[in-house]
Amino acid sequence: MRPVACWLLAAALWAALAWPLAAQDVRADVQAQAAAALRDGTAAKQRVLQRDRAALTETISTANAKRDAQLQAMYRDHLPANVKAAEQKPGTRILMFASMSMTRTDMHGMMEAALADPRVTIEFIGGPRDGGVGALMHWLNDIAQGMKERPAIAINPPDFEKYHVAEVPYAVVVRDGAAVARVGGVVSPKWIDSQLATRDGDLGTYGRMSSVIEENMTAYLADRVKHFDWSGYTQRAVAGFWRGLAMPSVPHASTSETYQIDPTITVTHDIRTPDGIVLARAGQKVNPLDTAPIAETLLVFDASDADERAFARHQVQLAAGKPIVAMSTTVPATAGDGWATWRAWQAEVGTHLFAYLPAMAKRLNLTGSPSIVRQEGRLLTVQQIALPRKEAP
After folding, report:
1. Distances (CA, A) of 42 to 159, 238, 243
2. How far apart are the C-alpha atoms of 1 and 197, rounded to whole Å?
3. Whether residues 270 and 315 fall in one domain
4. Is the dihedral of CA 193, 196, 200, 205 positive or negative?
5. What span, in angstroms and rounded, lies between the C-alpha atoms of 102 and 92?
6. Are residues 122 and 204 in the same domain?
7. 302 neighbors 328 (Cβ within 8 angstroms)
8. In sequence order, what E strands does 210-348 have?
9. pLDDT digits over 169-190, tens only?
10. 3-state secondary structure of 374
11. Which domain of life does the UniProt lineage start with (predicted)?
């Protein structure tokens, strides 16, 4: 087999096995999570603060047209198919502005009209101050009981501002992107069509009107940004790093033993390159160590345990600069300052400390800590050490 093909085969097999290719791949496997623990806590908080402040401020300060597109995108996937089809075509749209101040009868009539006419979209400015959008959806679902489908409903503060809507029900007829007519107190598209046959512009006000009582969602978001507890948020975000790590359970070794792992696998299906070259056939037995050896020693231990930290420090000293990857089977308790604790563990051990994450645990399947893993020939040798423990008083 050509050298390049051999290398590609090894890479593909390691990927299929979810097994470390080499020392640098061991680092890569845990770097994304563990590197965060090596950063300075203050700098990490500042980055979270700057990123999220910028993201939320952008939502508030964007021009109306862009905000409109963002808000509409939130609801686009929930629109009925017939409404989506109608909006994709140039022509007439009827925006019906609504509020929870309307009677249930009027709201039900508007929803029935929207279901019957794909040109109609019902729009709200936001949710009520008490309960928010969830309360609005509950109110609408209660009114819509018995309907086979739900009409197209959107929360669209920019349209309320654009068309100066303060009372509802209110309808605006938009033709090819431009408003051509408006009317208050009417929820019947047929009536609107009959009037448009002879006139346009302001068609007047008919029937009862009520004030918009919901909170403007844009103003709501602006207020949230203004009064947001950035300090508490960033502290929780940094502390949450440790809560998000699902660590495998590796008990302290009760017996010392040495055993070997044979990474040879039987290929279950043909492995091909993107251009179709066959790297390995189904049924072929391959040992990835033949072409992708592991150069570093892997040291897996419980960094929360003083005895195992001392053992790890001794192993690092014995390595005398030779490549070694230290991984902890535990992370700091979330109740304390996990970042400071992790840095203290690392300083005590004397080398970078990585987390022994589930992906690595699945590959090595160690049964006790501390353990030392090295490549010997075409096998991986695991040396498990039972440390002497002081009995609890």
Report:
1. 42, 9, 19
2. 79
3. yes
4. negative
5. 25
6. yes
7. yes
8. 210-211, 257-261, 265-266, 271-272, 278-280, 285-286, 297-301, 324-328
9. 999 999 988 999 999 999 999 9
10. strand
11. Bacteria
